[in-house]
Specification:
This is Arsenate reductase family protein. This protein is an alpha+beta fold and about 120 residues long. The protein contains 5 helices and 4 strands; from the N terminus they run βαβαααββα.
């Protein structure tokens, strides 16, 4: 299992604590320091069953500067969104947990984190 975290994020710290309490075997990826490439992000999105706009933090200053909220949310625009998230990883919703069995979740709630432990 791998968890993408921003150590400054309380939701990320909470998710890590829940994984620790459960004795889960996982690795931490500080995705702001080690951002995913386009292929990795596309694979995680597929595992999540989400589109890049679904995990974009549109309230961030970078998103406002890019005017990302005005971008079309269509299959044709998917590569543009992925490129923006890769170039600006602070726009990626966190934490994201991926499991060896191919499942993944945005672990913003204790229930979402727990779903990865079953």
């Amino acid at each position: 299992m791998e968890i993408w975290v921003n150590p400054a994020c309380s939701k990320c710290r909470s998710a890590v604590s829940l994984l620790d309490e459960a004795g889960a075997d996982y690795t931490v990826r500080k995705y702001l320091e080690d951002p995913p490439n386009e292929r990795e992000l596309a694979e995680v999105l597929d595992r999540l069953g989400l589109e890049p706009w679904d995990i974009a933090r549109t309230g961030e200053e970078t998103a406002k500067r890019l005017e990302i909220s005005t971008w079309e949310r269509t299959p044709a625009e998917r590569p543009r969104w992925i490129q923006a998230l890769v170039a600006n990883p602070e726009l990626i919703q966190r934490p994201i947990i991926t499991a060896d069995d191919g499942t993944a979740v945005v672990g913003r709630t204790p229930d979402a984190v727990a779903s990865m432990l079953r």
